[in-house]
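Anyone able to model this chain together with iron/sulfur cluster?
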Amino acid sequence: MQLFPDAKVLDIDLSSGQISKRTIPGQTYRLYPGGSALGLYLLMQEMDPKIDPLSPENMLIFSVSALTGLPMAGLSRVVVTTKSPLTGTIADSQAGGFFPVHMKGNGYDSIVIRGKAEKPVYLYINGDDVQIKDAGNVWGKVTGDAEKVIREEINNEKVEIAQIGPGGENLVKYAAIINMCNRANGRNGTGAVMGSKNLKAVVVNKSKAQQPYDKEGFKKLAKSVTTQLENNPGVAGLGKYGTGGDVVGFNDEGFLATDNWQRSYFPEGAQDIDGETLYNTILKERDTCYACPVKCKRVVEIPGVVDPLYGGPEYETLCMLGSYCGIKDMQTVVLGNQLCNMYGLDTMSCGATIAFAMECYEKGLITDQDTDGLKLNFGNSEVLVPLIEKIAKREGFGDLLAEGSKRAADQIGNGAEEFFIGVKGQELPAHMPQYKPAVGMMYAVNPFGADHQSSEHDPFLVMPPDSQERMNIAKIGMHADYDNTFVMDDDKVRFVFDSQCFFSITDTMCLCQFLWGPCWELFGPTELIELCRTGIGWDTSLFELMRVGERRINMMRFFNAQAGFTKKDDKLPKRIFEPIPDGPAKGTQLDEKKFYESIDLYYAFAGWDAETGNPTDITMRKLSLGWLVEKYKEVE
Ligand code: SF4
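re: yes, here you go
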């Protein structure tokens, strides 16, 4: 059995123009085998967590994993690690597509970017040949136009490009990094950090697939996972309707966040913005990531209005540009999605911030004078497109909304803070904690702000025991016999923490959670262990993998602690604890006292301090992170 592979790191200092390469030995890489675990390992050796996120001192790190580039479904994701300008916490933002495999294929597990270029530049990476190139011709251009110019300039149609749009250039706090013009490292404002460095794009040349360590074993595994994919009805539905196929289902249950979470029922519009409607009307084709037959990505076209280059909306986008704003016009939502991908904005924070502004407007906290004359009533589909343009360009009222809803609320005052529906400055995803309290707990405690992809969702514990057995959650010790999702007891808290550790493995190893997450009856711990063995010769166990996942969570939380965050920041908005006012779930209420008692139990399960909610020295040392404890003692 070979040792764990070494990690190759590309270091670029944009201030000095210096480019260098280094190797992290396999025995170290094994502890931080990719994603933001590797990113944090590199970042925390030299960066002060208290720095201004938009200063040259912030580091911007693109990481893949030891498994990236192997020819199998769900292994092509890239994670950006930096300090978030939106939340002030660590940022961890993930995207799929083809950029990740080619970043790895060019020889790099991490690209570490420091400093700030004097004028706009982009990076061109072709194996050992790494160039910092003038981006004067593409600065200011939307992603589709910039991609075209860059490809012509370097005379190579086959490159993959991760870039910012005008949103990132203008330092919109929730600017995204976009690859393929439709895949986003969307959350946490990583695009603004890139913009603050005058870095327009990272371009990687096309490369060959990685060779597996045990070719025969890998082939056998690939065949078995493909059969599982083909035979799974859930996956067929995901491929056909995308994640947007859930809109009507959640609405029928009475849990579709509407009008900035004032309502949770959207009978007048849910059907119009559902993934099935999209499939039956404007879907042009289904797109995919490297080596994945599922094809869950949407490509829509409305001739003369919406360009298929910019993909199509998924569940969160349909809700945030749709029901959050009371908008039921699919064409407007799809156009909003296109603009976000053109300008490089996170569709989620963008839609939620507009919904926040609509509530401020309807309640008289802002008027036509503040909004440049735009009538920001819920349901007014005419304002969505001009507002997104204004935000990306920071024009007029858009300049305020470009700061995100938390900062906008602070500035508007007069009680506007009550209308900010987010945690740690980041707007909530579209899964309601009143229905999914475990997800709500993750919103509260997750180190990089509210996130719906960092732990498993409650409905998986409401399935019959035989279904649960079939699922991979059983393999990490998850069983429950609930007849509804609303429960928050000891088992549910353990479900949050243990599934968070498992999700953290997938995020560290840069795996697509639709395929490798614990609950989809698809590939789980057994296949993952076999993938590690046949793919790279890593003879691992579920025990070691769970420690990998837990280590990443603790590193993120430790970073935040150094930046000044504590348990007081793990709070859901007040509105979440009010009774649901309308629809089939009317009267449902999340018990606030019990919820926070459960969070105290979560801290105890995680080995975090009861007073601060931060990792204790003992927990850090248990996870081989004593070096961080010692380092920050020296800093104090
Ligand atoms: S399931 Fe969807 S997101 Fe995941 S790898 Fe396949 S196409 Fe990409």
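The pocket of iron/sulfur cluster is lined by residues 73-74, 96, 288-289, 292, 294-297, 512, 514-515 (CB under 6 Å).
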